[in-house]
Every structure is written in structure tokens, then in C-alpha cells.
Amino acid sequence: MTELTITDARLLDAGAIGNILSKTNDQMPWLPRVHSAAEEIRYAGDMIEAGWVRVAKRDGRVVGFIARWEADVHALYVLPDAQDAGVGTALIENAKAECDALSLWSYEANSSATRFYGLRGFIQTDRTDGSTNDAGLPDIRFEWTRDGR
Hints:
By secondary structure, this protein is α+β, with helices and mostly antiparallel strands. It has a single domain (4-145), classed as 3-Layer(aba) Sandwich (Aminopeptidase), CATH 3.40.630.30. Helices cover 32% and strands 32% of the residues. The strands form two sheets. A four-stranded antiparallel β-sheet has the order 1-2-3-4, sandwiched between helices. A hairpin with a 2-residue loop joins strand 2 and strand 3 (61-69). Helix 1 (14-26) crosses helix 2.
């Protein structure tokens, strides 16, 4: 397997990031589609322009991304055919190297994400009924701190 590189996203990566969002969301039948593919690309472009996005590339192909503003992780996605190959771990570890704490929300129905974050030192700190998120699904707040508190 070739080396994985993590770099700041460029605006030209918006299409690849939108594609990752679409393909990953398509793998979750419990997740309602609330945005079109075009809206996902526009959202990716907005996050890139804000300076929030780092991408993971293998063989020059964007295979995953993380969108983070300071300690708040807004998105962590990996292409379905690149999952379970260390991409998500590399992205979250890269963010940990830059921060003393990280926090994020994940849908309760996303059991693989719950397991992923738990294995990487995140703890569950809050839950909601989903009334405040776009999908209307119950979600979980996760937090990680360098000192484990």
C-alpha cells in the first residue's frame, strides 16, 4: 500500500470532498438525504475557503478529509473503499497533534463511528434527541483531551 499524505485542502479538492460525503452517506441507509450532491460540493468549498479542511491522499487521490475549526471537528469522512485502512485514524491523530482537546458530534445510529472514537480516546459527554441537527436524528457529543480529563 502506498503512503498516505495529509495536507491542507485546496479549493480544487471540493469535488472530491463532495463525492466522499455523497458516497459515505449512501452507505448509511438510516441517514436521510437532506442535501443534494451539488450542495455537498458547495459546502465542501465553503469549508475549504474557511481553512477548516485537511485531506488524506493516497496515490494523489483524496480518500478522506477532516473539517475542523479550532477544537471542533465538523466532519471526518473516508471513502467507503478506503475505510479500515488507517485513513480516519491518520486524520484524527493529525488533528490531535495540533490541539490539546477535540470535540465533535456523531449520530447515535452510526455505531461504527461510536466505536472508532471510543478506541481513539474520545468519551461521550452529551446526547440529544436530534431536534437541533439537519437530519433530525439523535446524536452523541464526543470529547478528547490530551491529558485524558
